[in-house]
Inverse folding.
């Protein structure tokens, strides 16, 4: 019963919020209350006690609980942030529906067919959020936004089809056939790599993520990157555990080449993501490419099949949910209209909005894994796993991080630490024929709202707190790791 | 004669898929999609591993086939209604003068384009050769890489998957991209029913639901695109 409540309560609330969607503040309060109720429900749920429903097994393991509570918390904070950050008219109901679907996916991780279809449906819902315009918006939906939504729709559907096909082929294969001439191992592996690669924005399937970061509303990017993508990563881990490992598609001494291939893809993704981040002039796109870099790091950790590497990957994935929220909240605050045309580049953002600017800087440092932020502990584990696999992996991952750091330095120099526009400047001489209308408009600078300052500070404090004292979270992840047989037996 | 009747659904699937890949008019391709769903439903009903379990009047039919047929008809109906009504009209009172001017410009451009759009055989060259490639691959793959119990089953799911994929590749408008995606979903549907060791009702029902939600998403995006650019052509979307 409690499982059903967990799935259908946010969906029902989403329907209610859709009806009342014009009452923005009311629906945000209702949605946040729903998230808090869900967190209370999840923390009361008994672990590892499967229930059967319509022939399906619903269960919540410690890993699922850890991430579900995190997702619901991140969802609640994203909904709160939408109080101040521009969002679409239907954002709140869609977010509730997505969180309901994510809850069901996490409860049904052991049912690969259903989980992959739920992920497709979640992607379809996210498409509606991408093209959503605020209530009474005076502008048309942008061409680029439409193109991004279409790209996301097509790629996520192809990803889902690939995953589903892979699972069907695995279910049709007898374990005795694996390794023989009619074994579909390689086809399944190819389908998994493409399917999950598209979902997790692994190179060369990454192009949708920077586009999404650029064109979607900041909180929609949070839903997709921090919640849907990380759920997909958990699904991949559970697929390793319950599907691919028993059928010897991954893990085991005979499949070392497959895992080597995944490690190489992870390293290439990290390197290319960091390199492309360095080449960006747009703040949002740069953050998008940094997330791609991070996805490569996580994939590498997972592909090592090593206890340290997988712990690092899980820890990094958890960190990513918090950091992405911090980054996009900061971006949303920094991009508030200030009376200037949208194409005017602002170079003194840190001086103008110090908390939001610090949030962006801190979030990027955490994503790169620099001390004392939370990413440091998880990246350290990934570097350790890389060193165990061979010095060359460690060197390449460190190179990727160095490139990403350069990108961050460039962003800070060009957008955050520029000369303050408040300093008196010598007035430019008026040319003949120049009128007041030709002068740039005065900046309309409002102070940072207290609520958003508090939210940014809390998120920064979480990143610092976990960075300085990661033991409790690491302890929980280590406990989860004991149940993952594909790691122990390798 | 008997063989022809037995293979009629496969022929229907093959022909309708070919029409979807080759032709551009949404009125024809949507009819082809409906025929494709009917063909798949009849094809599944013919398979021995699907037993009739409900009676509709005098007709005994399997729930699986019925679910597939209903979801297929629903998806086609959603796209047909979109095709007939299209535009998601903006509230003009809300829009600023720049957006209004942009809408007027888009309307004029689309009108000019429609007036100057003659039938050109060259537009069909790439779809035609893609169709040839699909035929070749769908005939060869079931022999090179057999997965289902029979060659016919393998042909059907390979055909639907490849036609769907290539339809997306050659698509010039949003509705056709949607048709390609729906055909891909149809392909994994047939694969699951024909190949999975045990068929569960819930994944099948969910697959039907995904089909309908996908059709709705495509309809919504098409409406937005048409409302914005007064055309469904994708090249207008990517113009800078």
């Amino acid at each position: 019963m409690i499982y059903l409540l967990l799935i259908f309560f946010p969906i029902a609330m989403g329907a209610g919020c859709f009806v009342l969607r014009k009452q923005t503040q009311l629906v945000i309060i209702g949605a946040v209350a729903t998230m808090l109720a869900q967190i209370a429900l999840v923390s009361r749920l008994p672990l590892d006690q499967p229930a059967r429903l319509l022939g399906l097994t619903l269960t919540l393991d410690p890993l699922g609980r850890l991430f579900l509570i995190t997702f619901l918390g991140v969802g609640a904070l994203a909904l709160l942030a939408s109080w101040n950050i521009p969002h679409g008219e239907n954002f709140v109901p869609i977010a509730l529906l997505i969180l309901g679907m994510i809850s069901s996916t996490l409860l049904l991780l052991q049912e690969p067919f259903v989980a992959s279809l739920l992920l497709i449906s979640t992607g379809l819902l996210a498409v509606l959020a991408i093209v959503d315009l605020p209530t009474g918006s005076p502008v048309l939906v942008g061409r680029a936004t439409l193109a991004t939504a279409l790209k996301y729709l097509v790629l996520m559907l192809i990803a889902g089809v690939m995953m589903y096909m892979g699972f069907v082929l695995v279910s049709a294969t007898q374990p005795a056939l694996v390794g023989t001439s009619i074994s579909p191992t390689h086809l399944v592996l190819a389908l998994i790599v493409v399917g999950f690669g598209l979902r997790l924005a692994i190179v060369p399937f990454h192009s949708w993520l920077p586009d999404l970061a650029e064109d979607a509303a900041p909180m929609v990017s949070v839903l997709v990157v921090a919640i849907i993508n990380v759920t997909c990563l958990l699904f991949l881990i559970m697929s390793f555990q319950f599907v691919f490992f028993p059928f010897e598609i991954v893990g085991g001494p005979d499949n070392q080449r497959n895992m080597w291939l995944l490690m190489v893809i992870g390293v290439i993704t990290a390197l290319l993501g960091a390199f492309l981040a360095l080449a960006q002039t747009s703040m949002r796109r740069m953050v998008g490419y940094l997330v791609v870099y991070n996805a490569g790091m996580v994939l590498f950790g997972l592909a090592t099949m090593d206890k340290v590497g997988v712990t690092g990957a899980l820890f990094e994935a958890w960190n990513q949910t918090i950091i992405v929220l911090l980054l996009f909240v900061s971006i949303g605050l920094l991009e508030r209209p200030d009376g200037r045309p949208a194409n005017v580049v602002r170079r003194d953002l840190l001086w103008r909005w110090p908390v939001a600017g610090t949030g962006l800087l801190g979030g990027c440092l955490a994503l790169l894994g620099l001390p004392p932020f939370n990413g440091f502990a998880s990246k350290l584990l990934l570097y350790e796993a890389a060193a165990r696999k061979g010095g060359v992996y460690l060197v390449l991952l460190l190179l990727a991080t160095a490139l990403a750091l350069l990108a961050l330095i460039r962003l800070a120099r060009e957008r955050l630490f520029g000369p303050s526009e408040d300093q008196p400047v010598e007035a430019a001489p008026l040319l003949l024929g120049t009128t007041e209308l030709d002068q740039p408009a005065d900046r309309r600078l409002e102070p940072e709202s207290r609520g958003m300052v508090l939210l940014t500070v809390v998120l920064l404090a979480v990143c610092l707190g976990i960075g300085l004292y990661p033991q409790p979270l690491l302890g929980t992840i280590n406990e989860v790791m004991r149940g993952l047989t594909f790691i122990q037996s390798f | 004669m008997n063989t022809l009747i037995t293979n009629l659904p496969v022929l229907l699937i093959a022909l309708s898929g070919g029409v979807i890949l080759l032709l551009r008019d949404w009125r024809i391709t949507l009819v082809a999609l409906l025929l494709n769903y009917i063909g798949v439903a009849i094809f599944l009903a013919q398979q021995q591993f699907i037993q009739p379990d409900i009676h509709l009047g005098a007709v005994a039919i399997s729930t699986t086939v019925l679910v597939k047929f209903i979801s297929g008809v629903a998806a086609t109906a959603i796209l047909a209604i979109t095709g007939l009504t299209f535009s998601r009209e903006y509230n003009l009172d809300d829009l600023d003068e720049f957006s209004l001017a942009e809408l007027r410009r888009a309307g004029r451009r689309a009108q000019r384009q429609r007036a100057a759009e003659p039938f050109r055989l060259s537009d069909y060259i790439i779809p035609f050769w893609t169709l040839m490639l699909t035929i070749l691959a769908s005939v060869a793959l079931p022999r090179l890489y057999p997965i289902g119990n029979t060659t016919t089953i393998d042909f059907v799911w390979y055909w639907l998957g490849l036609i769907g994929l290539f339809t997306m590749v050659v698509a010039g408008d949003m509705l056709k991209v949607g048709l390609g995606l729906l055909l891909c979903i149809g392909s994994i549907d047939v694969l699951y029913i024909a190949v999975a060791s045990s068929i569960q009702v819930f994944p099948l029902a969910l697959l039907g639901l995904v089909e309908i939600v996908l059709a709705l998403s495509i309809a919504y995006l098409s409406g937005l695109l048409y409302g914005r650019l007064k055309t469904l052509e994708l090249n207008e979307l990517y113009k800078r």
